[in-house]
Each structure stands twice: as C-alpha cells, then as structure tokens.
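Design a sequence for this backbone.
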C-alpha cells in the first residue's frame, strides 16, 4: 500500500530532486477530498495545460473553472522549470481512465496496454503535474522544463520506491487525451514522448551519484553581465566586455533561443533578443522582458545549465 506522501514530504521529494518549488496559497489543504477517495498512490501523471503564461496557468490550475473546480493538479511546471504547488490531495486532473493501465502501472509492467476503457478513478491514484504548453503540437517544450518534469517525477518515485514505469502521460490513461505533446527545444525539435521522459527518470533514479561530474562553470556576475548587456550592443564589431557573457550565451543556445554562432562572449543585439525570449519563457512580459538580465531569470537559467549567479 502506497499511502500518499505528506504534503511536506511531497515538497521535499521535488526539491530534493533539484527542482525549484513555488508554494501557492493554501496548497497543502486545497483539494477535492470531500468528493472522493485519495490514495493509495499508484503513479505520477504528466499533462499539458493548453495555456500560455505562468501566472495565468498557475491560477487556472489552482481555481479550476465553472465546469471543473480546482485544484486541477498538484504542481504546475512552468517553462523555466519551476514547480508551482497549487493543491494537495484529490485533484481534478486524471478523470476516468483505463483499469488495465492502472494494473500495469501498479505492477510497473511495460509496454502499457491501450487505454480503451474509462472505468478507473484516476484522481484517486495519481499525483498530477500540469505543464505549461499550448498542446497544439507546435509550442516547444524548453529543455529546462522537460528536465524539471523528469526530476519532479523521479523525486516522487524515489520517495515511494517506484521505478520509471510509474510515470505516465494523460494520453496513456484516458481515451481521447493527447497530452503531453509537442516539440522539444524549438518548433522543429524532436517530439516529446513519455518514453523519453521515462528514460530520463530512470537515468535520474540510477544516477544518485553521477559517475562523471562535469567541471563546475565559473559563477556569472550579474552586475558585470548587466553592464555588458547595456553597452555591448551599441559597440562596433563584437568586443567582449565581460567573459561571463559566454556562459549565458551557451545556455541560451542550449535552450534553442540563440544561434550558436552568436555565442561569442559579446552581449550584442542577438544575445539581448535571446535573453528577452528567455525572460518571456520565465513568465515576464512588457518592460520586464527587456533583454537586460535580472536576478531571478538568470538564476533560473543557471539552475538549468549549471552556473551560479553572484551580485
Ligand atoms: Zn491532461
């Protein structure tokens, strides 16, 4: 019997997997437990929101809507890889799904049978993550978001002693569902699949002590980076005023936001545009997404690409 983790153990499981957690309102007590049972737990389910923008998506998943009251999941995973905890307990995310799939997930048997029945109460048995994506098959999934999905799921699996086979997509559970889907990284990137997510979860579970740790990158100095972002674009040629800009450019290139040829240490117009795209991905808009690095967006980029930020 896998009793549900306590709310604090759930939060610790995600944080312990290296994912940034944002706690929203009274999430530990916000649930649908008055409508039906919660637990025993059988697995983790991944969804896409069919929305854009972090604030709007988080709010919707917390409150729900007229025909489907919230919470609509436990955690919302935004495009910068943070998990926003919106509810804990029974939540309206999984609906009725296939009992044969439930049996297979419980036994961690693969491949999963086809989900052609709707006879089992998914909201009872699954932890649910809604991940910010339009779900139109075109909206790209940033690498940092895909990694956060795998890490959050792996953290919960580790806490329960489960393997990667305990992680499924809504599309594998309920007839007619298509989530999650879309390209990874950029519009023409490879498709996100549950097989890829499970493979990464398995790696993370195996990999408690990475055998070949990468050499640490030097920290990025925020004030020197900001100075470069303010002055470099206007300079002729491509002079490097702060070498740390290259670390940030490499991360932006890995996110598919900057062409590799512009990762040259010069914080020029292209880099500024790429940084603006990163800020939007982090949920900023208007003058908050101006291409001049701020502490929070830079820290998020650093978490995903292995550098720290100093003032
Ligand atoms: Zn779904």
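Sequence:
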């Amino acid at each position: 019997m896998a009793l549900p983790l306590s709310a604090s153990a759930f939060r610790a499981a995600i944080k312990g997997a290296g994912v940034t957690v944002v706690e929203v309102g009274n999430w530990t007590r916000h649930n649908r437990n008055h409508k039906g049972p919660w637990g025993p737990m059988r697995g983790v389910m991944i969804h896409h929101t069919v929305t854009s923008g972090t604030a709007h998506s988080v709010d919707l998943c917390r409150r729900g809507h007229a025909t489907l009251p919230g919470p609509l999941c436990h955690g919302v995973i935004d495009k910068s890889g943070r998990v926003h905890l919106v509810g804990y307990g029974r939540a309206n995310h999984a609906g009725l799904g296939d009992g044969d799939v439930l049996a297979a997930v419980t036994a961690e048997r693969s491949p999963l049978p086809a989900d052609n029945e709707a006879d089992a109460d998914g909201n009872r048995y699954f932890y649910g993550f809604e991940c910010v994506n339009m779900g139109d098959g075109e909206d790209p999934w940033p690498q940092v978001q895909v990694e956060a999905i795998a890490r959050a799921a792996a953290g919960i699996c580790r806490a329960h002693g489960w393997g990667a086979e305990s992680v499924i997509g809504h599309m594998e559970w309920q007839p007619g569902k298509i989530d999650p889907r879309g390209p990874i990284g950029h519009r023409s990137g490879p498709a996100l699949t549950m097989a890829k997510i499970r493979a990464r979860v398995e790696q993370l579970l195996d990999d408690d002590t990475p055998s070949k740790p990468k050499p640490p990158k030097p920290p990025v100095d925020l004030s020197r980076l900001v100075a470069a972002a303010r002055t470099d674009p206007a300079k002729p040629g491509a002079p490097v005023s702060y070498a740390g800009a290259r670390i940030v450019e490499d991360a932006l290139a890995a996110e598919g936001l900057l062409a590799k040829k512009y990762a040259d240490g010069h914080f020029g117009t292209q880099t500024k545009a790429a940084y603006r795209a990163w800020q939007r991905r982090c949920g900023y808009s208007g003058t908050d997404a101006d291409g001049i690095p701020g502490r929070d967006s830079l820290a998020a980029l650093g978490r995903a690409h292995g550098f720290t930020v100093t003032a």
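The two ends are 48 Å apart (CA to CA).
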